[in-house]
Every structure is written in structure tokens, then in C-alpha cells.
Amino acid sequence: MAGTRNTALAVVLAALALTATACNSDDGKSAAPAAPGSAAAANTPSTAPTSAAPVKVSPAAYLEQVTQKVSAAKSAKVDEAITIGPIAMKGTGAMSWADGLQGELTMDLSGSPMGQALAKITGSDSAPYRFAKDGMYLRLGGEAVDALGGRHWMHYSQADQAKATGGSSDQLKDADPVEGVRALIATGKVTEVGQETVAGKATTHYSGVLDLNDITAAAGKGMTQQQLDQLKEKLRTAGISKETIDVWVDADQLVVQRTETGDTKAGAFKASVLYSDYGVAVDTTAPDPSDTVEASELQKLAGTAG
Fold it and tell me: Is 167 helix (H, G, I), strand (E, B) or coil?
């Protein structure tokens, strides 16, 4: 019994770390946009003749416009698929990035060996997460609730997440879809791949390779030096030297899909996120402290059980 609980507790902590990494790779966690390489009449001076051709802008410049549109949208529904080595996860929910990362996301691990072990903690092979201003919460179930005196949520603070991913304690707060676009801009090598249909929408596909050795030279290209330093540290911690980032943007300059691929210490990594229903209402509050256990306390319990 103790060995089973120890394994399950350890798996939950691993799942939390992986989900946080996906959101923040971003995160991210979360997601990036892309769109046509030419700006339409909105970018053409009002004094220009109506027959004048649209002003052509670079892919990076267009993505800067996308970050503004996505920021203004503030929220969206998400549908993501993540693989890291032999581990596979799928997530659905709704997230807001208007004031840090907030929302709810359910991760399905039924396609991974982790799912069976996770059931000891959550009562099923899925993991319901709640993102609030002070960090991330996992809904507990099954044996875990009894073992923890009836408490139903595990709190994974920003400091816990930073320790797991090698980043700053503000990563959860800063994880929003815009960061993914900025990371693509920061590659300094954005390529407009072409027009593609994604989730039934006409989009423009953009791609770039983020090289760990080139990040330092990317300051001023969509990210601050502090953000670039954090990104560099996250990649180094995960053992990633290069990461390919792809984004698809629709005619409204909103991200439809974003993917990240690379090789990590745990194996090949791929995160793909679909975004829909921009502007959806997201009203998330942190669980009551009396119904919450800290991840650090759970780690101690796991050690004791071992």
C-alpha cells in the first residue's frame, strides 16, 4: 500500500511538472498565432489611392500585430496534445491570460502508462487542473483524498513550478499564448510557409527554429532580455538545444494552432495546441485553503511512504 501510494504521488508530481512545462513552453504551456505576410488596407495610409497594392510587411512584423490582437482577445478555449518520450497527454479547457494565466484544463492520460498510476491520486486516468493567480491546482480523488484528510486539491505554487522547470517563479503568471508568438519572433528567422486549412479555418503558417545559442542575440525582437534569459534557462534545463516553433493564424490575426517540437532529456517532445472561441468567459477562483494540500507537503508524504 505504501509503495503504491509513493508511486502514485511521484507520478502526480511528474504530471504537474510536464503540464506546467507544456503551458509555459509556450508555453507554455500555450500557444501561438500566425497570419498572412501582407497587411491589408489597415496598414495602407488613408491618403493612398484605393487602387494601391497592400503594404507588404515581414513575417516578424506581422506577428507583432498578431500579439496585439491575441492580447486583446484575453481568453480562448484550448485543445492540446503533448508527448514527451513515452508519455502522452491530451488536454481540453478554457484559459484566460488577461491577468496572468487563469482557467481550467483537464489532462487525459489514458494513452500513457502514467494514467493508471495517476488514478490512485485523481480517481481516474485524467487530471483536472485549475490555474489561479497564485499557481496551479490539481483536483484529487480516490485514495488521495482519504490519505490527505479529505482535502481535494493539491496546490502547485509558482515557486514549485519554477523548481520543476528551471525557470522563474513568475512563469505561470507570464504564460499566455502571446509568449509563444514572441518566442517565434525571437528566432530571428521566421518563415512564411504558406496558406493552410486548420480546424476548418483558412490560415497562414509560420515557422522558425529557436536555437539556444542564438537566443541572446534576439533581444528586442518581441521579448525582453529577462524573458529571453528565462526561455534560455528553461531550454537548457530540459536539455533542448533547438526547438521548432510553428504557428497558424487566421484572417482575424488570431492564433488557430501552435506546435513546438524538439528533443529533451526525457525523449522527443511535441506540444500542439488548438485555440477557438476567443473571448470566452473564464471565471476561475482558487480552492479554499482548508481543502488544499501543498505540493511540497505531498512530496514529503511520498518520501515518508517510501
Answer: coil
